Amino acid sequence: MKLLKSISLLLILIITVNLTGCWNYREIESMAIVAGVSIDKSQDNKKYEMTAEIIDIESGKDSKSVPRYITLTGDSIFDIARNMITISDRKLYWSHAKCIIVSTSLAREGLGDIIDWFIRDAETRSDMYLLVSTEKTAKEVITASPNSGKIMSLELANQLRNQKLASRAPILDLWDFADSLIQQGKSATVPRVILNRQSGKPTPSIDGIAVFKKDTLIGIIEGTETKYLLFALNKIKGGLLLVYTENQKPLTLEIFQSKTKIKPFLKGDSLNINIMTETVVALAEDQPLIEFYKEEQRKEIERNASLVLQNSIYSSIKKVQEEYGSDIFGFGTKVREDMPKTWKKLSTSWSDKFKDVPVSVTSKIKIRNSATTSKPLEIGD
Question: Start and end of every Spore germination protein N-terminal domain (predicted)?
Answer without folding.
Answer: 24-193
